[in-house]
Amino acid sequence: MPYTDKGHLEIEDRGAVLVVRVDGGPHGEFGLDIANQLDRLVDRVDRDPGIRAVVFTGAHPERFVSHAAVRWLQEEGAASPTVGRRAASAVVSVAKGVDRARALDPVVRRTPLRGALQLERLHATFLRMNASGVVFAAALNGSALGLGAEFAWACDLRVMADGDFFIGQPEILLGIIPGGGGTQRLTRLIGTHRSLAAILSGRPFTPAEALANGAVDEVVPQDEVVARATALAGHLGARSKGSVAAAKRSVYFGGSMSLTDGLHVERTEFFTRVMSKEGQELMLDYIATTESTGELPLYDPDTYAQALASGSVPGHRSTQPKRR
Predict the structure, then answer these.
(1) Sorting pLDDT into bands at 50, 70 and 90, what band is 96?
(2) 3-state per-residue secondary structure call for 248-313
(3) Mean pLDDT in residue range 182-186
(4) For the chain, percent of residues with pLDDT exceeding 90
(5) Residues of the chain above pLDDT 70, percent
(6) Residue 183: pLDDT above 60?
(7) What is the pLDDT of residue 320?
(8) Angle at 148 between CA 145 and CA 149, to 5 degrees
(9) Phi, psi torsion values for 62, nearest 5 degrees
């Protein structure tokens, strides 16, 4: 039976936070429709200054996202001739260029290059999430394998349901490897050896194992997953959107470079913020408060607690800055 998409995103607007239920049909699979809708969603929230966080959860009662639609992967693979590593590298390089140009899309969709283009675009969507000023959280209401796990790894936060659930990369058991970023993001989360061992074995992590190795941030009862992920994402999303984006780019992109190159990324992002109107206003407010009280505001426990709760240091200046 040819592959047909059945997935969609159900978006619930909660003001500064969007709760998005990923509906991959009866099996909870991630297919091309979900990939395309996710791309549009990331574009939307990046452009909207009022949206600070997005929480993803599964519409399936026991699955976040089961894995990629295998028929989708199989058919796209079958549409292309068998190639070696050098030829495959050339194909994905061409796909990157085509994706940037976009103009050739209608033509490419009728060629064997379309699978590489689809994967390139999904990677680009995940990278835009990593560079965004919006905080993305995965509320893992159940199990996630393959692309479902990779979707979670691409988020900034992961809260997983306690119970008989699992998360991991089983692709090697189908004669393939992770293709949605699993070899890279899981490695950055838990380290090279543990990531390689997990990918080679194909055995997923239990919630307790995922928490212990740093693959998820918290494990809570299933009925509390969305609420907890929403609270965490909303809390971090209350910080300056521009500064959240700068910090994420520095960590995600600079953190995987050499120290010299990573420091260059950090300096670049730092100067964009220290010269921004928002950064200048908050620093001047901090100076004015210090002069008024005779103490550094962050060394006052109550002030520090207020700053952590609100997302910025409170001060005595009459004009409070607008966050961007």
Answers:
(1) low
(2) HHHHHCHHHCCHHHHHHHHHHHHHHHHCCHHHHHHHHHHHHHHHHHCCCHHHCHHHHHHHHHHCCC
(3) 97
(4) 77
(5) 82
(6) yes
(7) 46
(8) 65
(9) -130, 10
Write the secondary structure of the chain as one string of H (helix), E (strand) and C (coil): CCCCCCCEEEEEEECCEEEEEEECCCCCCECHHHHHHHHHHHHHHHHCCCCCEEEEEECCCCEEECCECHHHHHHHHHCCCCCCHHHHHHHHHHHHHHHHHCCCHHHHCCCCCHHHHHHHHHHHHHHHHHHCCCEEEEEECCEEECHHHHHHHHCCEEEEECCCCCEECCHHHHCCCCCCCHHHHHHHHHCHHHHHHHHHHCCCECHHHHHHCCCCCEEECHHHHHHHHHHHHHHHHCCCHHHHHHHHHHHHCHHHCCHHHHHHHHHHHHHHHHCCHHHHHHHHHHHHHHHHHCCCHHHCHHHHHHHHHHCCCCCCCCCCCCCC
**Global model pTM greater than 0.85:** yes
- Is pLDDT at 79 greater than 80 in this prediction? no
